[in-house]
Specification:
The complex is a heterodimer. Chain A is elongated. The longest helix of chain A is centred in the last third of the chain and has 14 residues. By secondary structure, chain A is of the alpha+beta class. Chain A has a five-stranded mixed β-sheet with strand order 2-1-5-3-4, with helices on both faces. The N and C termini of chain A lie far apart (49 Å). Chain A contains five helices and five strands. Chain A folds into two domains: 76 residues, Beta-grasp domain (Ubiquitin-like (UB roll), Roll); 67 residues, [2Fe-2S]-binding domain (DNA polymerase, domain 1), CATH 1.10.150. Helix content of chain A is 33%, strand content 16%. The longest helix of chain B is centred in the last third of the chain and has 27 residues. Chain B starts with a helix and ends with a helix. The N terminus of chain B is likely disordered. Chain B has a seven-stranded mixed β-sheet with strand order 3-7-1-14-11-12-13, with helices on both faces. In chain B, strands 9-17-16-15-10-31 form a six-stranded mixed β-sheet. Helix content of chain B is 29%, strand content 24%. Chain B is globular. Classes of the chains: A alpha+beta, B alpha+beta.
Amino acid sequence: MTKAHRIKTTVNGVISEHTVEPRLLLSDFLRQELGLTGTHVGCEHGVCGACTVLIDGHSARACLFLAVQADGSRIETVESLGEVDNLSALQEAFREHHALQCGFCTPGMLMTCVDLLRKYPLANDDEIRDGLASNLCRCTGYEHIVRAVRAMAAKR
Amino acid sequence: MSDIALRPKHIGARIKRVEDPRLLTGQGAFTDDRLTPGALHVAFRRSDHAHAIIAGIDANAAIALPGVVAVYTADDLAGLVGPVRAISRMRGYHPTEMYPLARGKVRYVGEPVVVVLAENRYVAEDALDLIEIAYEPLAAVTDPEMAAGDDVPILHEEAGTNILASREFSRGDAETEMATAAIRIGGRFRFRRKTPLAIENRAAIGEWDRGRRALTLTLTTQIPGIVRDLLADILDMPGHSVRVIAADVGGGFGGKASLYPEEILVAALTKELGRPVRWTGDRLEDLASTSQGFDEIVDAELGLDAEGRIVALTAEVTGDVGAYSIYPWTAALEPVQVISFLPGPYRVPAYRGHVRAVATNKAPMGPYRGVGRPISTFVMERLIDMAARRLALDPVELRRRNLIRKDQFPYRVASGIVWDRSAFIDTLDSACAAIDYGKFRQQQADARAVGRLHGIGVATYAELTGIGSRISAAPGMPINTGTETATIRLDSTGAVTASFGIASHGQGLETTLAQVIADELGARLDDIQIVQGDSAAVAHGTGTYASRSAVLAGGAATQASRLLKEKLIRAASHLLEAAAEDIDVTDGRVFVVGTDHSLTFREVAKAVYSEMGRLPPGAREELEVTKTYDPVFGTTTSATHIAALEIDPKTYKVTIDRYVVAEDCGRVINPMIVDGQVHGGVAQGIGAALYEEVVYDDNGQLLTATLADYVIPSAGEVPSIETIHLDTVSPSTLGGFRGMGEGGTIGAPAAIANALADALSPLGIEIFELPMTPERLFRLVEATKAKGA
């Protein structure tokens, strides 16, 4: 196929180098090359947001990024947040407010929320819902996700 | 025994979910997360024709592509795997043969025609482009009413007709009663096609154990037991050598509750090639080939006397079931439910409902959350509101006059369904009180005075949930969906493992079933592990669908827990030297009531299993119980939804201001999870009412093949939903639980349709079609204005 490229990335604080095809999606790179299967793939055309990760501190769709574009970038995935026995405050808020059901959209939803909570006032539910509208969830009807984010926004 | 010890501590409590930590940290085990070194990756070349003869396939260039290992067409599969037929005892039903790859002709856009196996998915997809398929196009059949007529192309020649099933339910002489009714209200109602749209696409991984000649299929499915049983048949293997695992599944909503061609193929090719074989569908494949739902035309009429009491109801229903009768539910499932449930929670003395399930060149119709009842509720609740308008009665008052009253239970409806007992009128009263219905009407009058389009819509419905062995989940289907088995075991370390045939995919059943067991057995929550989503868990299981799991698995868990508790007490009576009736179990301890003599589960387990001589000979029993629960008929779940909304007269954007659900789901196991189920169901109902529509053009081409075209609600479109639980214990089920996974989607389309009609009532506009998109609203209003001018 097309000539492979050498890329260097920092994923969840770990620096590594890989040789990848230019057409390899960042979502496939994370899941298949690095084994970070927490980042899920829902549509591969940038609508559902399940694959949302942070690239150099900003939320982005891993399915709309090529791995080669991430060369030299700092990437954060859901695996960077907390552990099963030591959830992050945001993860704990999701659990407390029942903000997940099947859990498939959840990693992308969490990474979007990390970005929202860092950047925006989220002064009321309308602002929270505006921010969450980038990610689709088919299970929760969003209400419990809004409550989790509201609780986190108040704690900042 | 003390009352305090018996009081439930976990059932009814807002307990955080067991599932959450793994799902929140990216440690879930979804199908595509599974690592399979050396696997072959599958890609499907799918039909781009709706209806065409396959004249020839040339796959030579694909086979020659480096990295491609094998290519199969239907001809190559002959002798490897045959067709599947969804059979039924229903009279006049025609099953259809579904081959894993289209054989001879294609019947819908997206039907698998050729399968490629390659070293990775990218190469497999490259190879698809190199396959040449020669088609001889046939006329596409897309209009179900035309498809049901004469002189139309037939999809399945062996059926000889496109009408795959038809059925009628009647009670009394509906036509005669209708003729004499003081008020007659009717119309043609149209509910447009939907897709379940789980965020996780369908996927399957097959692994072959060469030593044991055993197949494991990891699958995004709601029905691992049904898939296992069928694969054992068609691959001619014993059930113990075919295992279907649905570990974490990313939503289903009915879309993962049927057997798919891709699943059969992955299983068959894994066995044939002796290597792991994996397929992960993309969103286009999901939108084109996952079972769709809710596509019906309903001509209905309601007759009432002058006081507004229903005297008769008639309906003629046409269901567009797509290209195949889906396994195992059949094409009859969705459309027949429409006429089964149309009379709803009302006294309807005379009824006739007739339905046809008609094949067209579209993706097959299957179960989708609510199955038939979102449509039946939409139609009936619209008719009630239209009748109220004619009678100049408040729609809530008209409902009160017709809802089945407490003293009228059990109430048998025409289709044979029996409403055991449910809080029909209570849900209506509670929802009205919560939204302050009277005050809203005043505010509405003020808003109308200044030209604002405010509306309020009420919908009350009833559904049958937790159905047992006497009522098939689908008419005449030869699969037992009415029982559920629990095996609960205290192992030699004192840990409790409880195994079921269900398959949770977001419902939180690992938590709610542990709550039931904790109370019934007296175990600690942390000591209980729930095994489910695995065909090997119990001898027979079907899965999770039809709002059954909490009722059936909860019942089985209750029975098995109680028997296991008796075994524990019998063992402890020897160990504690006390009479069995003086012993109780709570919090993972077996104790002599009123004393400090107690043993932990661990101590009892060690004594029973490991410490020889602690029990008298013959007193040692395995600390394991298997019980199968059958609720026989099932139970009634009901709710009233009220939506208050405003239509923007310029853009026709609909904003839902308030949404209240008062529901009777029986004894609540976990109120937090019940709220979540209601919220999610309502969100899908809002999508069905306002946004979602699978669109095929006249040639059978799918026009909604991306998430930009098939629009589901985001956080901006779904309001905060208020819930009221009427905790009325079901008289018909063990534990008093009622199923509640689907109700949100059943009530919401009707409530929103009624609210839209209410908002537009100054213009005299009624709503007969969903989804009511801004464009449709605009056209309705323009057409009315044009008529007025």
